[in-house]
Amino acid sequence: MNASFDPAAVSVEEIRLTDRMAVAEVEAWLKTRPDSTPFHRPAWIAAVARANGQRAILLVARDVVGGIAGVLPLVLIRSALFGRALVSSGFAVDGGILALNPRAEAALADTCWRLAEAHGCSTAELRGGPAPEGWTVKADAHLGFSKPLEADDEAQLLSIPRKHRAEVRRGMGNDLTFEMGSDRRLRDIHYRLYCESVHRLGTPVFPRALFDEVLDAFGPDADIALVSKDGTPLSSVLSLYHGDAVMPYWQGAALAARAERSNEYLYFRLMTSARERGCRIFDFGRSKVGTGPAAWKKTWGFEGVPLSYALRAADGQALRDVNPLSPQYRRKVEMWKKLPLPVANLVGPWLARGLG
Questions:
Q1: Can you tell me the distance from the alpha carbon of 195 to that of 190, in angstroms, rounded to the nearest whole number?
Q2: Per DSSP, which regions of 255-353 are E strands?
Q3: For 280, which of 11, 68, 153, 327 is 20 to 30 Å away at the CA?
């Protein structure tokens, strides 16, 4: 007797990131999905894995006729200090399962966990998307900030609450210069400013290769914006473009940035340039609950929305915790701030590769 035909059946395969046709198919499918993010793209996981010496895994669910029914980008994080984890999406603030139906969602989640077990991971983590049944959901650590861009510069300025609007105007009156691009000079400046900022926060820096790999992989869908005064760099940000949204992702600033209001000028000009590019959404990215960056984004008129992450731990194992605000890391963060900057920049990339 023949088995009954199930039109809803799905299968899951791992796509080789060297297979250009398969990758192009996934990229094209993601463009049809308004809920996709830059972190679902094969270009993202391939770039961050190469830069950090980790492994990228791209899972694709297919329906009975071979069409794409879902995608799950993963990065296998291996660290001597922080253990092993399978993360979607690695080194990102979003990702997770993107699927057409619950059956594809379940198939991708099951395959993800089987891979995590096969690679000896203590934790699998989905940063966004639906939470698989039985996984632990955490929605109390991070907020996302996003809202539509206004129709023109004046409307954009007026959308900022009055007190912070005055700060933006101060920046606009400080004879600052704004430029955008992705050439070697801008990359060098941005990484230096980024390192200074991260050191003040007390967290290790990502390797320089991470920024280069993402810029190269994304091409016109990523760039650096820089604000300077009298030739001295003050503030910069590496932004990602996906669909109709711009996301300023990795930011850096000199100590003098606050006095010159260059951060305010930077983000306002980025809003302007993104609108001219055709973007409709400004995604201010993720900030940790209760932190200064979260409060600062609210002064721009953005409301924080809790971000839900789904996690699963191996039997007898605790969920991996790499949040620098966790009590176990507070003393280490304060110690890191006191390290000389050259030492922090030398050791930091080795540590940060294992955070993901």
A1: 9
A2: 281-288, 304-306, 309-313
A3: 68
